[in-house]
Amino acid sequence: MARTLKEIDAEIAEVKKELEDVHGTETEVYARIVGYYRAVRNWNKGKAEEYKHRKNFALENSSEYDIHNYADASAEIERTTFSPESELLMEDGNFEEGAAGSSGVRYELYARKTCPNCPPVKDWILKSGLEGKIVDVDTEQGLSEAAQKGVFAAPTVIFYKADGSESGRAHNVAELEEIFAVATA
User: Are the C-beta atoms of 95 and 79 separated by less than 8 Å?
Assistant: First the structure.
């Protein structure tokens, strides 16, 4: 049985009226407090006041981030920075022209100075003997590069093959060890 346009419009109006009177339930918010997560409503007065002053960061709301241009920008950076014709070598935290390492694998470590998880990852990657660079995402240039590469957390290590294509990502020492266990197996 076909409905008329008038019946459909009446149904739409009825649904809109119902939606105006929708009442949700209270949302339970959990946040990290002194090493563990707990419902914010159960925090003491001092911690609750501290929570009110916290600033949330969302890369999607950043002027540096544009999800529509991510794929194009990332591809362009890989073509210009890691062209097969130009072998790259790390020196003083920057890629420079030079001889490639024996494996041809390179890395980019995106880290912050205040990140508690960055030092162990940095130590591990520096001891690996791989060539690469460390990008400080606390700087405007570093944040811009991280956004273009789709890096949403620090630390993030991106590995590149000799041809410049991305071969993997890791965010902690356990993931680094897992990647290298698979690669050497």
Answer: no
Q: What is the pLDDT of residues 45-58, one digit of tens each?
A: 888 888 888 776 66
Whole-number Å distance between alpha carbons of 39 and 161: 44
> pLDDT grade, residue 2 (50/70/90)?
confident
Residue 136, phi then psi, degrees to nearest 5: -85, 110
Strands 30-33 and 131-136: unpaired
Please indicate, yes or no, whether the overall pTM of this predicted structure exceeds 0.85. Answer: no
Specify whether the backbone of 34 is left (phi greater than 0), alpha (psi in -120 to 50) or beta: left
Q: Bridge partners of 88? A: 97
Rounded CA separation 185/38 (Å): 42
- Secondary structure, 3-state, the chain: CCCCHHHHHHHHHHHHHHHHCCCCCCCCCEEEECCEEEEHHHCCHHHHHHHHHCCCCCHHHCCCCCCCCHHHHHHHHHHHHCCCCCCEEEECCEEEECCCCCCCCEEEEEECCCCCCHHHHHHHHHHCCCEEEEEECCCHHHHHHHHHHCCCCCCEEEEECCCCCEEEEECCHHHHHHHHHHHHC
The amino acid occupying position 86 is S
